[in-house]
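job 3f2a | input accepted
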Amino acid sequence: METLVGAEFAPETTYLNTSTCGLLPARAVTAMTALMDGLAAGRTDGAGEYGALVAVRRSFARIVGVGEDRVALGGSVVVHTALIAASLPPGAEVLLPEGEFASVVTPFAVRGDLKLRFVPLDGLADAVGPGTALVAFSAVQSADGRIADLPAVREAAAVHGARTLLDASQSAGWLPLRAGEWDYTVTGGFKFLLCPRGVSFLTLTEAAQTTVTPLHAGPFAAEELWGPPYGPVERLADSARRYDEPPAFLAYQGARRSLELVEEIGVPALHRHATELAGRFRAGLAALGHSPVVSDSAIVAVPGLGGRAADLAGAGIVVAERAGYLRAAFHLYNATADVERALGVLARG
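job 3f2a | predicted structure (349 res):
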């Protein structure tokens, strides 16, 4: 893995901020540059090609363990979530963790006629009841990196007949995931999947597809692609492609190569690498007298230490401050030296 990563990444900083945005591999930059050059020169290859979308859909489907007919492509998680929010009847109860990321919460909140109930993350499974229509939550929390008890939530939802919406934006690419275990998943591709911004994914079970109206359907959602472009689409795709948004070809040109790299290395290897580094960082923080959030996550968060993000930035170490936490995220382009460098700065007080 080291040789492959060395050929793709040469960051000028110690980059521990993949939870905010992942680094682009060189192969993705090359692909996007070629497309931009074609457009600047007025060549037809500058318009983008649909084959990139086909490749991205298939690659993501393999990564999360579903058929490509279950994957819809888009540009943002919040648009996918809004489709699901629009499918719920008035008065439906949506159960969410306290402190959940806004892209998961807001589309339900703006409806104004849904019952939103918030509970602590570790009590999410126990809070599911017979009146719960949907449990919506992130597999890994953005603020502090905690991993939800996925089996417990899934079991509780099944017992009470509630649907499930899993946001995999902070997990896909390092945490093994089987999207088919959830009614819906939404995933921003620009974090651990290393895609450009403007790439996101929605998966739906066959049953769930019968409940969601493709409100933004256009020509790319048609069963017959490249059919007559005028008037309403006569027949929407029989697969989840009916939920496709019009694609940002430049972003998907890069995403094709980014996901290719993720598949070459494999999520199990990425999981081992990232969590080992995160574990080293937690141990080092504890030795310095700090108390990071207890987790097996690739994301490390330290309560009350967010103010040190500026000190780390001054030393060329990129982390994030979220809700008072110092947040560091580890991925394939990080190494033990990055852990030691960050700990060295924090040790200086």
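job 3f2a | The CA atoms of residues 59 and 259 lie 6 Å apart.
job 3f2a | closed
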